[in-house]
Amino acid sequence: MTHSGRSKFEITRFTNEDENHINRKLPKELLLRILSYLDVVSLCRCAQVSKLWNILALDGSNWQRIDLFEFQRDVEGPVIENISQRCGGFLRQLSLRGCESIGDGSMKTLAQSCPNIEDLNLNKCKKITDQTCQALGRRCSKLQKINLDSCPSVSDISLKALADGCPLLTHVNVSWCQSITESGVEALARGCPKLKSFICKGCKNVNDRAVISLATRCPDLEVLDIQGCETVSDEAVSRLGAAAPRLATLELAQCTQLTDAGFQALARNCRMLERMDLEECVLITDATLVHLSMGCPRLEKLTLSHCDLITDNGIKQLSLSPCAAEHLTVLGLDNCPLVTDEALEHLTSCHNLQLIELYDCQMVTRNAIRKLRNHLPNIKVHAYFAPVTPPAAAGGARPRYCRCCNII
Fold this sequence. Notes:
The protein has helices at about 20-25, 30-35, 40-45, 50-55, 75-85, 105-115, 130-140, 155-165, 180-190, 210-215, 235-245, 260-270, 285-295, 310-320, 320-325, 340-345, 365-375; strands at about 65, 95, 120, 145, 170-175, 195-200, 225, 250, 275, 300-305, 330, 355-360, 380-385, 405. By secondary structure, it is of the alpha/beta class.
């Protein structure tokens, strides 16, 4: 059907009057609100639509939360400087995780231009030094979360600068910053009493004094990860039990000096504990499981891998506890040589157990795992069974068999 005029089905070419029709129908404030839901890539695309959209898409109010990890990991300094100047006081959250080209110069510009930033992730920004944290301490007093994981040039100077200038800090991660010592941690604890989470995996110079300072000065502490801090002793763990009742996550893997005595004191008061990693705490015995069973009714995840002295009796005590009946979902028992099939029989009462790890538990059999599955059909069991090596064939060399792990 044709008409002398335009058909209502005809696709027409926009004129200058028709251009940006949506822009004339919607107020700029509403367009800005719509664009505020887009990610970095989408905003950059919208900025290419028209002059007005360019202005709206690049408006600082749309760049309050930026994560460049999925966008571009080889970001250079000028990009950060442009973002800093565009966002200004709007910027609240920025993740530069994995941006290894970023240096102190760009971060100084960010600190100067974006004084309202609250959450900054610099994980694996390996060129960052103490100068960045000094700039943040001078300019960014509203900072609440900072991740400096795997920034090897960061030292106590950074923690002291943050302590002096960022009193609202609640979450700090300095894992694998091996120049961090008790001096920096003590300064942080003094200056940031609102601290809820402190993570320092691999910081071997963090000791009892550092942990005790966090326990006594940060009453809201909920997460503490000191994996690999080998000098930490029962004294620090005991003080945590006395002074950190809100502790929910405690990661103590490779803290090899800890014994049952520390955990007895801890379990007496830390009733909010939900996650504990005790891998390679080689001195603990079933007594620790007795203490945790009685004192920590909310335990959801417990790792006991390489705890050589744990036996079936300890697992039995755990299985009879309130946490086992209601909350326990993950149990790690890798390389516990004294754990046998009997332990799995006790665990059938843990109705919410979702995952158990049994790699290299050589006293546990396939049959026991099958029985466990009969009671807990949805459980995942990670175990290792080396194939049986057959006797040597007569008249020839014994064939080689691949001894690999099986996920059962």
